[in-house]
Design a protein that fits this description.
The protein has 4 helices and 9 strands. The chain is an alpha+beta fold. The longest helix is centred in the C-terminal third of the chain and has 15 residues. The protein starts with 12 loop residues before the first strand and ends with a strand. A hairpin with a 5-residue loop joins strand 2 and strand 3. Strands 5, 6, 7, 8 and 9 form a 5-stranded antiparallel beta sheet that branches. A 4-stranded antiparallel beta sheet has the order 2-3-1-4, covered by helices on one side. It is elongated, with a radius of gyration of 19 Å.
Length: about 170
């Protein structure tokens, strides 16, 4: 029996992909255009220049079955500004969230919950408290849900995922 025919018969997976690109003005649009043209979804995208070089690192989180992930990687490798594509298998992932809640909330409760998720109170004004937290994406999702249910935030801003191979 050959199992090769069943290689793509798999469930949807979440994949973190790092892409090293030449830092030029249209690199991001080419990457996003590739996903858009083929109907693939980008769950998270972060881009930053690599210090001391002319390159940037894009960290993309996407979902799909093995066939879709393979197609994404193959298509990324064909793009001109792309130097390297890395499908991460064992990574450390971090995400940051900023949450603004009304000032009428008990600060001690807010601070205790924030600390449980590696967070801190960043700013307090006459109207609002701004909290930040940086942690693994599933913990940030849990933190955000708790804050929404308990404190009715005025605004929530999340970064994309950044990842590094272990």
């Amino acid at each position: 029996m050959n199992n090769f025919n069943h290689y793509y018969d798999s469930e949807t997976i979440r994949q973190v992909i790092s892409v090293i690109v030449i830092n030029e003005h249209n690199a991001l649009s080419r990457i996003v255009g590739l996903f858009s043209a083929r109907g693939y979804n980008i769950d998270s995208l972060t881009v930053a220049p690599i210090t001391g070089s002319e390159y940037s690192r894009m960290t993309i989180v996407t979902t799909g079955d093995k066939r879709v992930i393979d197609q994404i990687v193959k298509q990324l490798n064909k793009l001109i500004p792309v130097l390297k594509v890395n499908e991460h298998k064992s990574v450390i992932e971090k995400e940051t969230v900023l949450i603004k809640i009304p000032i009428n909330q008990p600060i001690s409760d807010v601070e205790v919950i924030a600390r449980a998720y590696n967070g801190h109170i960043q700013n307090v004004t006459d109207d609002a408290i701004v909290i930040s937290a940086t942690d693994e994406p599933h913990r940030i999702a849990n933190f955000t849900n708790i804050m929404i249910n308990r404190f009715n935030p005025l605004e929530i801003v999340k970064s994309g995922v950044v990842a590094m191979e272990r």
